[in-house]
Amino acid sequence: MLMLGLLFVALVLVLLAAGAVWKRVSSRKLEADGIETTAVVFRDETEKTNDYDGTVFVTHTYYVTYENSKGETVEAELPDPNQKLEVGDQVKIRYLPNRQNHPIFLEIL
């Protein structure tokens, strides 16, 4: 039973390490091959949740629209920019041509 527990811990550690490596490689690829452009926030979905002690957490999911390098309009969810955005805000993003629906936030303009 102890051996099974150790194998499980080892598997979890390997998966965490693989996830960290994948994130780093993905980030480098986005920096090297990513295309920067301007996007406009067109939707803000706000969700409020309460913790057991009454603390209220507010989560924003932002959606942007932008024109890709082919001139096509793309709508995408923007990962948490760690700052409050408003509908209509212009933001600088970076995206990969093969992952246009997964841009990253660079800055608010």
What's this, in brief?
This protein is α+β, with helices and mostly antiparallel strands and 109 residues long. It has one helix spanning 2-33, and strands spanning 35-50, 56-67, 73-78, 90-96, 99-108. The chain has a 5-stranded antiparallel sheet with strand order 3-2-1-4-5, with helices on one face.
Give the N-to-C terminal Cα separation.
Answer: 57 Å
> For the record, what CATH class of the largest domain applies?
Mainly Beta
Order of helices and strands: HEEEEE
Report the β-strand fraction as a percent range.
Answer: over 45%
Assembly type: single chain
The number of domains = 2
Number of helices: 1
Low-confidence stretches: none
As a whole number of angstroms, the C-alpha radius of gyration is 19 Å
**Helical coverage, percent range:** 25-40%
How are the strands of the largest sheet arranged?
3-2-1-4-5
Shape: flat
Give me the CATH fold name of the largest domain.
OB fold (Dihydrolipoamide Acetyltransferase, E2P)
CATH architecture verdict of the largest domain: Beta Barrel
3D architecture notes:
This protein is of the alpha+beta class. It has two domains: 1-33; 35-109, OB fold (Dihydrolipoamide Acetyltransferase, E2P) (Beta Barrel). 29% of the residues lie in helices and 47% in strands. The protein is built from one helix and five strands; from the N terminus they run αβββββ. Strands 3-2-1-4-5 form a five-stranded antiparallel sheet, with helices on one face. A hairpin with a 5-residue loop joins β2 (56-67) and β3. The longest helix has 32 residues, at 2-33. The protein starts with a helix and ends with a strand.
